[in-house]
Amino acid sequence: MSFLGSIGRSMQRAPRPPKRSPTPTGGSHPSSDSVPQSPSSPSPQKPLYLCSPFVEAALVTGNFKTIVMLPKYADVMEWVAVNVFDFYQNLNLFYGVLAECCTQHSCPTMSAGPSLNYTWINQDRKSVQLPAPTYVDYVMTWVQNLLDDDNIFPTKSGREFSPTFPSTMKHVYRQLLRVFAHLYYAHYPQILHLRSEPHFNSLFAHFLAFGKEYELLDFKDVKGQPGQLVGIGALWEKWKEMGILES
Ligand SMILES: [Zn+2]
Q: Ligand 1 mean position to 165 CA, how many Å?
């Protein structure tokens, strides 16, 4: 059985995690009312994710380069497939826990910076604003459907990856990046409340390092454009300065 074959089966079994946290965190859990989200009128203060000690918090110390290198004898397509699958699963679990704070009321748009709201291209190829929870649900459902599609993620031994696999993975990467960008920009206080910042930072730094190594990331997407900067663009710069990511 191929390496990917074994992964493929676990992909098929993997259930979508609950959208709401299965473990109540008690009365002190911040509600969307007590932690106001106001993407249209952001605080002029530096975001918490850029502040010490949160910006340094990590499960993994050092540079991510070694973690993302292609293992000996591994096929690069399979390596990318396995890692993208893991990034999706981990991000989906985080979002499942944070979903109760990400509502149509708290996040009427898919915000990721002081003047940046992502739009979704609908079936009529029109660009539409969606509430963040709807946007994220569309992304996660779309990626799950790709993972379940044997033509894209072949699970049987002897089946080849399609020539379009790299470009499909780039699309996936761009959309997962947007989910990270929204969570950092709009929900970092809740991540801190859950004391998950070391885990979340390491997951994101790994995602960035992997995306750079295999050219899955378009760095325009990480930084944004003048007037529409992505909040996490500054985090990426900071981590490069700190030596966590390669420049
Ligand atoms: Zn949200």
A: 30
Range of the domain at 224: 51-242
Number of domains in the chain: 1
What are the Cα distances from residue 136, in Å, to 27, 67, 94? 26, 27, 12
In a domain, 40, yes or no: no
Whether the CB-CB separation of 94 and 203 falls below 8 Å is answered with yes
Gap from CA of 81 to ligand 1 centroid (Å): 27
Cβ–Cβ under 8 Å, residues 19 and 205: no
236 located within any domain? yes
Cα-to-centroid distance, 166 and ligand 1 (Å): 29
Report whether 117 contacts 185 (CB < 8 A). no
Cα(96) to centroid(ligand 1), Å: 12
For residue 189, being part of any structural domain is answered with yes
Question: Is residue 51 part of an annotated ligand binding site?
Answer: no
Q: Give me ligand 1 centre to Cα 104, in Å.
A: 8
The answer to whether 29 is a known ligand-binding residue is: no
Is residue 35, in this structure, part of any structural domain at all? Answer: no
CATH number reported for the structural domain that contains residue 227 in this entry: 1.20.140.30
- Give tens-digit pLDDT for 57-82: 887 777 788 889 999 999 999 999 99
CA distance 41 to 3: 49
Condensed to tens digits (0 to 9), the pLDDT of residues 155-165 reads 887 788 999 99
Residues 188-220: pLDDT tens digits? Answer: 999 999 999 999 999 999 999 999 999 999 989
Cis, peptide link before residue 53, omega less than 30° from 0 = yes
Q: Is 128 helix (H, G, I), strand (E, B) or coil?
A: strand
